[in-house]
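From the pipeline queue, job 12 of 40. The input is one protein chain; the requested action is below.

Action: predict structure.
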Amino acid sequence: MSDTFRALVIEDQDGKQQAVFKDLTVADLPDEDVLVEISYSTLNYKDGLAVSGKGIARRLPMVGGIDLAGTVLESKSADFKPGDKVNVNGYG
């Protein structure tokens, strides 16, 4: 995995949600139980609303594209181990 990756980030710009492409690092991501190297990702309907400025994102900044396929890099969960292939959709 490279040091940086390109992401679609929804953030607050003067009280309005706006989507911008940014180069991020793993350190920019929230601390969660599983880290996945993404091979493929799509934007679903709610992502589309968020990137269009409809104000539906609950926490900002937020990386859009919660539907994905990839490989587990790190895991604190007993359910997943590094190297596992995963297909993820939804939030929560």
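Job complete. Strands lie at 5-13, 16-24, 34-42, 62-63, 67-75, 85-88.
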